[in-house]
Design brief:
Layout lengths: L1 E3 L2 E3 L14 E2 L1 H8 L3 H9 L6 E2 L6 E4 H8 L7 H12 L1
Antiparallel strand pairs: 1-2, 3-5, 4-5
Helix pairs in contact: 1-2
Length: about 90
Amino acid sequence: MIKCDNFALESYSLNIYDMTEKRIIGNAEAAKLLGVTESALRQMRHRHTIPYYKNRTGARVYYLVNELEDWMLATRIATAAEVEEQAVKATL
């Protein structure tokens, strides 16, 4: 605890990149997370196929881990049993 004149300030360890449970990563980490090269990541970004952010000057690119994970899981392929179940329901 840090004491200043008339008040006490609790000392907290804040990670600027991990605040409010939003983990921000750069190109290298995003490419590794997605299992692609940085060149492939750049192409995906330019085609607007992945979610990303730029700083105010547009010089730096950032990604939120949870958004990339959601993007990776967005296209679920149904199992054969699920497809068969849907076909049976459609014929009734």
